[in-house]
């Protein structure tokens, strides 16, 4: 590991303090965003009443024991440092603690950004610090670390300062030793320093940790015994060791039902293996000049192997985005996006609520840390793909369809297949956010029933109020009722996902076009759910509709039973049941190669509209609304990116069988390879 001062001075981007033009403006706006997020986080913490906030320290008065209440999770050394703070007035301590914690977060962003390995593009050097700071402000670790008594941010800052900003070995080792005294697992940095050639720093770190621990034993012998012996380095303090907050290997094994000596033996073996693999990888990346990545991997491993690795200690995972993964430019966003999603969104958003996925869903942060420390194949700086990954093949952009609506840069026609993992992540998160927003839409029964009466009246005036007759006719025909019930509940998700999967594999260019139109239509539908809550026919009192899918509904009960807890029952206008089926029909009719496939595609929306009316789940005008938003989705894609499969005339060379898309003219060997790959893939699909 290079000397901190040498590394800092060698970084060409370390001296960048500002930028002109657009980069300078973007940098300023990003810092403003980071500041706004910090203020929001501070406001969330400071809303806690001062008395309750002070009790959140879980620290008794000066004469008491640290661990009597079993809630304080810090080391005896941390308690020795924090205990005198309880003598301050609660409001002043609350404000000071919150502000200092958030300032530490900003300092981490600044130091980490200057620790990026050379060469660093000027744009990255200017924007890395505010972007990283903003991401940390919304991350789960920082949101929890801002709570009273949590010191997880300070050890991260101490380690980063020791590695990147402190020139001498002994002061750097002293800072790392203090960090380990606050969070013992961080002593793992001592062997990293030793393997990387900074042995005086490693010795100083170990000696500082030993001295701080001995001081706490001398001052607080009873508490030290409780922490180190009775609770095995804090495991069990502040909560059960098997709680979801304990994102360590030990906690995961306990959640899987393993207990006793067998669990301890397995935990020790796994921890030793993880530490060994992570340290070897970190030392290799440190020698390669990727110091920030080496620090992040060691921090991830330290939390994973700790007996109690709390969520607020996993800020190291976010620092691991400094590593580059993948040879193709299209693959580079996968690792950063996965890390950001894992550290900013609840696990329930990332994964569906299925029992089979519970072990993964309960350990998302731990798995992210283990992946970074032991598995993710980060590129070395010597790789030919480090600076110049295989470029993405783009078609020449089509001209704007409307003169006043310019095409956006990210709507460029991509010819290659998108990264599957990234697509699955974004689709899952997008659908989960859609479900949450739909569930949060207004649910006023009076308003929804009033809008239902309005829709019913319009249909009467137009002579299309056929819902009641169709509903009762189907109920009198049991086999038809069973068919429509099955169709309504089974094909809504299966058919769109199947079409997307087929397009992804066989026609990636059309996949992007179809996916974008479906996403835009769904976003427009969310606006309809918010602006016009509507009671479906089955929830309209006095009209005599029969709910064939969900069974009889007690309309005197505003909750209408368990279905209301699952989804917003008044999110009916527009009907996405019909809208998504119409999207499926249009895509199949346009792209299917055979007539019988086109016929099935055309029948799907027709059967769906019959099903939603027959089961009393939608009005006829709901289907009209669904058709409107889907048409708008297709229209927006047409306006922004031009007609499907068309590109502007130019020097591009057509790829056989690529649906009219063009590959850019050669700019070098990499582009030739990309173009050849697209052409070969197109020939293989014919």
- Chain-averaged pLDDT: 81
Q: In oligomeric terms, what are we looking at?
A: single chain
β-strand number: 2
Main sheet overview: 2 strands, antiparallel
Q: What is the total domain count?
A: 2
Question: What does this molecule look like?
Answer:
With 686 residues, the protein is an all-alpha fold. It folds into two domains: 28-58 and 72-375, no CATH class; 441-552 and 564-641. The protein is 62% helix and 1% strand. The chain has helices spanning 4-10, 21-46, 50-55, 76-82, 90-114, 122-138, 140-145, 153-164, 169-182, 189-195, 199-219, 221-230, 249-255, 260-287, 291-305, 316-319, 334-344, 347-350, 358-361, 364-375, 420-440, 445-462, 467-475, 478-506, 508-531, 563-566, 576-591, 595-614, 620-641, 669-685; strands spanning 653-654, 662-663. It has a two-stranded antiparallel sheet with strand order 1-2. The longest helix has 29 residues, at 478-506. The chain is elongated and about 85 Å long. 42% of the residues are buried. Residues 2-12, 14-19, 561-565 and 647-686 have low confidence and may be disordered.
